[in-house]
Design a protein that fits this description.
This protein is an alpha/beta fold. The chain is built from 25 helices and eleven strands.
Length: 604
Amino acid sequence: MNAVLQVSSPSLNPVDISEIIVLAGNPNVGKSVVFNAMTGLYTNVSNFPGTTVDIPKGMLPDKRLLKDTPGVYGISNYSEEEFVAEQAILSGDKIINVVSALSLERDLFLTQQIIDYQKPLIVVLNQMDEARNNGIEIDIAKLEKLLGVPVIPTVATTGEGIAQILPSLSQATIGNVIPDCPPVDALKELEADLGKRLQIYGLRRHHVNAVVSNVMSKGHANTKFSWSRLFGKLFLNPVVGAISGLGVMLLLYQVIGIWVAADLVDITEKKIMVAHVVPVVQTLVGSVLPKGSAFYIILAGEFGVLTMSLQYIFGVLFPLILGFYVYISVLEDCGYLPRIAVLCDGLLTKIGLNGRAVIPIILGFGCVTMATVSTRVLASQRERTIASTILAITIPCSAQIAVIVALMALAGGLKAWAIFLVILVGILLVLGTVLNKLLPGKSTSLIMDLPPMRLPGVKNIARKTWVRTVVFLKEAAPLFMLGSLLVSVAQVTGFLTIAERWLAPVTVNLLHLPQTTARIFIMGMVRRDFGGAGLYFLAPHLSHIQILTALITIALFVPCIASFTVFWKERGLRESSMLLAGSWLIAFAIGGLVCRLVEWTHIL
């Protein structure tokens, strides 16, 4: 297959791709570690056309293109991930199938399916160290003979065997098709029929079981004390797991929400970008354009394309994204992330999510922008929509939380806190339930393997974190600059002032707030801490009822421009527009209702 492909890598130009290699495998077999080890930093991530599933791509040293695929148990179009994996596998020239030595009977089902579709492949038999520790012995030579394809034993986390993968690609072959299996040109059509599909699956399962029984033997497992086994069991205990899960979530909030979102961003944004970089940009632009002119304001003003974009992208987004991916990569590599999902699954299924959604929800209390990115860990588009909407509307970020904590005493103390929390939790539950009912389809069940606990590899974490961070910034930066352009043009044309006048009747008549609070909401659209800071300085002139009303409204109000830009990127223009309109409606409606109820009941 010859193709010309634009590879979005900093050091690569368009190149002729002579061969496309596809990496396939079940979840938790170490596929991403193999991909990163083979491609290094030369990767690009993009959505598969028509889906929200990411496809990492990277150039191999010999200029062949390597595509990763989602971890799936089969290619049968049951989910978006299976559809993407199927299309990638069928379009590839050669397949590298990563299987786990710990779960050979399960993983070889996908291997045999790829063989039956007559795709040349090699098998990477990963996690050999864990297999040996569990007393599992595998006859590699016999496995190669029965499958009819090369088998390379590896320990991807340490790099053992990785160097043998590329040379073995020249020996990739179709392998041994199951006897009585239909020809490949009729296979897909037959599998569309449920009865035929079950018959074909039965043939595959019988064949795979026979292969495994011939090549694998179970000896005595390593009985020496193992911290991995101990912690793996403890973290699944309901009591210990709940306590450890709470600790991990609190640490996540502390690391991302406090140390990174507050402390580190304070340095990168205010002490570096605002104090040094932005003035230099303004000086350079001012040497070309008159200060105060429309074009100067658009490029280098308060919301300028060059000034605010640089300030946000490198001062705010970069440290947040870097910190988040470091934390998540550690949880991934040590094997704890699947255990968090298991612990929280029961609660989150009630609002149309599953246990995986606990990460974005908790992270949202630090930064909704980063939490929206983290919804990528969810399995379906439906779940990402529910989680992203809940984050955008009901979860206050750390910038808002600081103001909320500071003003609650003025708003009525414990009574005000009780009202505030009941409102936000109630909206979250109602919103999740309504979306769960309205959105077509059903949320996915939490089906995942629990990998062994292990110490994460520093090199792998660093490589994976950097690749993910760079890819995200390359995708998000253009949209963020577009948002800055729209806001700065609105400022130059006077639209911000007009919007303030339009909004004033709502704030005065509906929310019973002073007209000046309109600007707080407008500035909160740009950055939530702008709105919070404005409310903080206005609070001495407000009654306790007005403070509570303003706090609830601004907590439910539209996400800041950074969050909205990321939401737009992740969910598309249609969903982001609906979110914008819905958050306005919910925030003002709930704010007006709370204001009147509190005034009527005299609860404060």
